[in-house]
Amino acid sequence: MLGWLVRIAHVVAIKPRPVFQTSWVQVPAQDAALDDGDATGIVFQFLVPISGTLQSASVLDTADQGNQLDVELCSGRFAGAAADAQFKLTDVEARYHIYRLQFATYADHEDNQTSDLENIGKAYKVPPFEEDSKWGWMWGQGIASGTPTYAAGSKPYLRVEIYPDE
């Protein structure tokens, strides 16, 4: 007599991985024509989990130019470059480097344009902004490609999606 082969299936609940999404953060940009490689404006900061993985990022170009915009991300405050001056990091500041976002391809929405980067996959750590906090500051500076001009009231905005470690 043949026995029955019985398979027992284990049901495993799969929880979606939480994603932290920053609010739209204005990337400072000078109200003047910029040269290729110039800092668009001063260094800025935004709140993030102290450790995680950069998953994706988006930029909103309210100036409707579609010029490539790079954003240098760092784990610590850095001087960067003055607005409308060639971007630079000192040897010490380069130790804070996390990633350079390069927004090159845009979708035109008539009055503005957007660009998205997907599947970045870059792990990072930033110091907590106060003891025992799970939050810290990520620092950035915009870098122009081409010769964009950002008028008052039409600055670029950045949003980052992160898989937090905790």
Characterization of the model:
There is one protein chain. The protein is mostly beta strands. It has a single domain (20-164), classed as Jelly Rolls (Sandwich). The chain has no helices and 11 strands. It starts with 19 loop residues before the first strand and ends with a strand.
Shape: globular
Radius of gyration: 21 Å
Percentage of residues in helical conformation? under 10%
Amino-to-carboxy terminus distance: 55 Å
- Overall structural class, as computed from helix and strand content, comes to mainly beta
If you consult CATH, what is the topology?
Jelly Rolls
Oligomeric state: single chain
At the first level of CATH, the class is Mainly Beta
List the total number of helices.
0
Q: Name the poorly predicted regions.
A: none
The ordered H/E elements are EEEEEEEEEEE
Number of domains: 1
The fraction of residues in strands falls at: 35-45%
Largest sheet: 7 strands, antiparallel
CATH architecture: Sandwich
* Mean pLDDT rating: 93
Number of strands: 11
The gist of it:
Helices cover 0% and strands 39% of the residues.
Structural features:
0% helix; globular; 166 residues; mainly beta; four-stranded antiparallel β-sheet; seven-stranded antiparallel β-sheet
Helix and strand layout, with pairings?
Blueprint: E1 20-21, E2 25-26, E3 44-49, E4 51-61, E5 69-74, E6 97-103, E7 107-108, E8 113-117, E9 122-125, E10 135-144, E11 156-164
Antiparallel strand pairs: 1-11, 2-11, 3-10, 4-8, 4-9, 4-11, 5-6, 5-10, 7-8
